[in-house]
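User: Could you check the structure of this?
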Amino acid sequence: MGKRKRRMKFSLTTAGVSYKEGPEMDDLKGLGFTFKRADWLSNNQYEINDDDISIEINSLEELVSFTNKYGHVVFSEDTITIYDDWME
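Assistant: Sure, the predicted structure tokens are below.
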């Protein structure tokens, strides 16, 4: 009998809170993130919404592919944070 694959589902967040229109914001939209204009930001910057985004990563290859596209990530329990800005 073969090994059963374990499905790994993670909540997904970003370290950044604001983004300019462009490829980075488009990539995040592709993951399910949404954005809104905020009074405290300049004209072409948008605040990221606190949506409940999750991602399933089922192999080391999928994880490598994800980090190749989105850069550094931080793992904590069941959450992956895209490390695209300063964080404590």
